[in-house]
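Input record, target 12 of the design panel.
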């Protein structure tokens, strides 16, 4: 009888080119995404060593990290950004790599455009010089971020050397209550196990809550696996996955698609497969969440007070520093805290479903006067859907404006920076000090919590707006 394998084992083992004794595995990479920030140095080093790109058809480039989100038809004003964008165009052109630059109708955030074009498929190994590559794990792929030297390694050899990670499974059964979105689910998990609780692990998410999630929700969850220290996260593919992929422009077609679906159906954890660690939670315990500190593990149910240091899993030493930076106190309620900025977007929450949820709260209401809102679709495809579904009109009537696709205020590499001392409710993935601009104070939340803050001007439980 063959040994029981986890989903992670099945995909990993199928890609091992060579195992080095007491060392890493040489892993074949199916898909390599690149963008303008982490690729120029890799190309430069490659050229200095006289190397070539081995499989240009397996690499896909898009401009996203430091692109402006207004007036994208104009030359990019920031010299460094303009340089990096120009280098990406030049390098991809030289080596025959697909390139979706500014102005291209397929341009957008790398982890949004990959899935929506059918590039991301179950059972693949996927890498990118970006930590949130774990997003693609929502399709039952092994996807993880890599460094610049590894970008060069993949460009030139289509392989990477990696130590196989330990395995963690997180199971959540039951039904989430009204107002709880996938973002709340993952913020709850990170708060439970801490921002470092999954370090050294690859996480599989299992149970009814993840089975019932849309593909967009699963992408949000896998995206934030990194925020608890994990190497990546993945969810077994199912009919929902196959339906999402079918018909996408770059996805397999006809008999090829049918044949692959038969293989994809085998990509699930076998009965009796062993995990190094397993956590089980109940969906009914999860409420809309918000962070109050300076790492994604410092999150609470929006109705609960800021906890005491003794009740926090990790970072007790930095706990006081974190609250001091945020200007918050132990025991305070987050509800009613003033909000200056609201950001809807990023590879975490920049998809059409996120805009639908945001619009469901702001419809028929008005943006608060004290709030500056940046609503940034993850791609032009999302932007077109927003307009086609009438969401654009809802947003405009409520006093909002829609920006152009890009990473935007998630990491403040363009002009979308939250000023020092100002508070932002953000649907992005990180609330580190200065992440959204030097001195910016970030509260991570779901699109519903962001929408509630945008119309009230303060942290608000979104459930008061739901029927």
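The sequence produced for target 12 reads:
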């Amino acid at each position: 009888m063959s040994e029981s394998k986890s989903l992670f084992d099945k995909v990993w083992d199928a890609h091992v080119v060579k195992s080095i004794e007491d060392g890493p595995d040489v892993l074949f990479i199916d898909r390599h995404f690149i963008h303008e920030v982490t690729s120029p140095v890799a190309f430069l080093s490659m050229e200095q060593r006289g190397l070539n790109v081995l499989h240009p058809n397996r690499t896909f480039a898009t401009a996203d990290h430091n692109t402006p989100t207004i007036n994208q038809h104009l030359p990019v004003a920031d010299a460094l950004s303009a340089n990096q964008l120009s280098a990406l165009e030049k390098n991809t052109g030289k080596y025959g790599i697909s390139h979706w630059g500014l102005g291209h109708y397929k341009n957008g955030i790398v982890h949004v455009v990959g899935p929506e074009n059918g590039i991301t498929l179950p059972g693949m190994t996927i890498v990118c010089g970006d930590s949130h590559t774990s997003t693609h794990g929502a399709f039952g792929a092994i996807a993880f971020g890599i460094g610049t030297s590894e970008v060069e390694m993949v460009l030139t050899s289509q392989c990477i050397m990696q130590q196989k990670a330990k395995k963690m499974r997180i199971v959540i059964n039951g039904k989430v209550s009204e107002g709880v979105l996938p973002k709340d689910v993952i913020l709850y998990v990170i708060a439970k196990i801490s921002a470092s609780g999954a370090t050294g692990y690859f996480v599989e998410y299992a149970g009814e809550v993840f089975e019932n999630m849309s593909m967009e929700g699963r992408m949000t969850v896998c995206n934030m696996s990194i925020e608890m220290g994990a190497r990546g996260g993945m969810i077994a593919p199912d009919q929902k996955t196959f339906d999402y992929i079918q018909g996408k422009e770059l996805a397999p077609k006809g008999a090829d698609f049918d044949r692959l679906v038969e293989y994809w159906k085998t990509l699930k954890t076998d009965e009796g497969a062993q995990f190094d660690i397993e956590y089980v939670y109940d969906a009914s315990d999860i409420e809309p969440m918000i962070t109050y500190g300076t790492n994604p593990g410092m999150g609470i149910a929006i109705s609960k007070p800021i906890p005491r240091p003794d009740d926090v899993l990790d970072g007790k030493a930095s706990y006081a520093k974190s609250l001091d930076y945020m200007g918050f106190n132990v025991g305070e309620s987050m509800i009613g805290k003033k909000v200056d900025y609201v950001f809807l977007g990023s590879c975490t929450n920049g998809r059409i479903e996120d805009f639908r949820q945001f619009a469901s709260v702001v419809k028929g209401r008005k943006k608060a006067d004290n709030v500056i809102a940046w609503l940034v679709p993850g791609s032009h495809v999302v932007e077109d859907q927003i307009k086609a579904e009438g969401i654009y009109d809802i947003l405009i009537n409520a006093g909002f404006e829609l920006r152009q696709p890009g990473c935007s205020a998630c990491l403040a590499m363009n002009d979308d920076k939250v000023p020092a001392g100002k508070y932002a409710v953000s649907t992005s993935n990180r609330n580190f000090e200065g992440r959204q601009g030097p001195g910016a104070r970030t509260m991570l939340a779901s699109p519903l919590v962001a929408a509630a803050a945008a119309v009230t001007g303060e942290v608000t439980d979104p459930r008061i707006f739901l029927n």
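The longest helix spans residues 79-95.
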